[in-house]
Structures are given as C-alpha cells and as structure tokens.
C-alpha cells in the first residue's frame, strides 16, 4: 500500500513559541502537510506558534494542503525580507566560530542592555513593531475564520496572570500580537481594554482547548523549547535563558502532568462513568540541536539560519512519521511517567484530585 492509499489519521497540533526558532515548527508543518495521511483537526499555539497556526489556517481555508504550505512559506519569506535591515546580525567572530548566536554582536549587546534597564514604554514610546505590519499584510483573517482547522491562540492577561484563549472566530492581528508580546520589548497589547502579554507565560502552548473542543484524542506537541538541560548555567545570560525556559515550560508541564495523572486513575479503574478521556500524547522535537542554540539565536533571522531550522524541522517530522505515526489513535509515544519520574502524585495521603475539566477561557 502506498503512502497516499494508507488510512488517514486525525491529530491535533500544539505549537510552542520561541522567536526565530519557530522556523523549526514551520519545517515540521511543511512535512506533515506533505503527507495525505495526516489530517489536522485543531491547532493551539502561542507566540511564534500562534503565527505559524494562523498562517497555516489561512492557507488551509479551502482544504488545500499545498496552499497551506505556500502560506507558511510566504509568511517566513516576509520575515526574512523585513530582517534584511535589522541591526541584529552575527559578529565576524560568531561567523568564524560557526555560532548562530548574537552574543558578541555589538547591536545585540546594546539591545540586551537597554531592555534590562528600560521598559518599552521608555525606549519604544510609539510601540513600533514591524512584525505586526507583516501579520496584517500576509495573514487573511477572514480565511482563518473559515478555515478547515480549529485554531486556538493564547495570551496572558497582565492583570490576572491567567491564560486567555481565543478561537478562530475571534482572531485578528491584535490577538496574534498579544500572544507574541514579550513585555521587555513591547507595550502590552490591549484588547477590549484588557492588557495582554506573551501567551507562553501561561501556556506554551495551552493544551486544554484541544481537550475540550476536539474529537480526536491525539495531540502532537511540536517542541522548540528544551525541557531538560544537563548542568547548571554559570554565565548571567545563560542563567536568564534557563530561567525563561523553565518559566515558559511550567504551564505545559502542568498540563502534561495532569494528563498522566488522569491516565493513571483510568488505568486503576477509578474514573469509570465519569466522562474522563485518555489523551494520547506525541512529540516532534530535536532537543539536541535546539538545546545547543543560545537564547540570543532566537533573534537571529538570517536566511541560512532559518533554512537550517526549517530543514531540522522537516527531518524531525520525517523521523516521527517513520517511527511514531503508526501509533496514532492507539497509544501515546511520549512516556509522561518517565518525564515526571521521582515526583510524588499524592498530597495528604493521596487526597489530591484532578479537576474533571479545565476551566474555560476567561471572558
């Protein structure tokens, strides 16, 4: 049986944020869209993941997989075009050493220093953000709203510290920019009088919209933020990078741990007749390659770097299709129990109970 003749399988996609590292996710999506067996029901995304999500959804408005691939390519081509005038370029030393980081780039060092001592309300009073102009220019939100896939975009409510999720019926460029608003770079994005910051703080990405609104049990996390790193960082920049990674992964780990906890109770026969369902988790990642990239590389948008990340993403997706796709609909290919090995599931003699459903997004 050929690939095109094989039975299609329905999945949900969870797309993380991570600056230019989102090009890895682009590569993953490009390869998945190439395979007719992969049917996408829903996508949840934050920050760069939100941008990839709306680009794909706009292209997939009429169910055309090739147009979805083209829409993603147009978006990233726009990113590269805008980046030509960016002062954030690698230094000759970094080029000589083959590093993709910007740590010795004079412009990046100055940029990094300014953002540590001044707020965007001081150094960017007009709130200039070329990326917003790019989203407005290249993403047709009417097509997003009538897309064949469900889309969920998350941002962080600055006032409450809670995640807020919008579905595709509500989406505009402002919602996407709210999801990608790093507070040390840009002013909070106000929507209906409420200020929002990057969705990665409270969901990178938020998984629960998929649990509540999609029929398929399979969730494929496209991971671009390493969960584990050996050793303790020793430089100031590396320490801040690791703190940010832990912060942006915390809500995701909470959701994954809840999934595993429910799965254990189902296995023990304690949730029969309660309406709980067992979710099947999968991951497409290249932790080794991405963990070798420093935090400053998330601001690197050189064509060669974006192409490298794109190809890494395609390779990771190809590996997943070869090794794990056959398990979709049958079992998880991520060992969540091993991920949390050594942690205690009990509180006060095992009285900790998971909520039956996640609370709905705040309104």
Termini separation comes to 49 Å
> What string, H for helix and E for strand, traces the elements in order?
EHEHHHHHHHEEHEEHEHEHHH
How many beta-strand runs?
A: 8
What portion of the residues fall into strands of 2 or more residues? Answer: 5-15%
Fold and architecture overview:
With 363 residues, the protein is α/β, with parallel strands linked by helices. 43% of the residues lie in helices and 13% in strands. It is built from 14 helices and 8 strands. The chain has helices at residues 22-34, 48-59, 65-83, 92-97, 106-117, 120-123, 130-138, 141-145, 173-179, 208-213, 236-267, 287-291, 303-323, 336-339, and strands at 9-15, 38-45, 150-157, 163-167, 189-191, 194-197, 218-223, 280-285. Strands 1, 2, 3, 4, 5, 6, 7 and 8 form an 8-stranded mixed beta sheet that branches. It is globular, with a radius of gyration of 20 Å. The model is unreliable at 344-360 (pLDDT under 50).
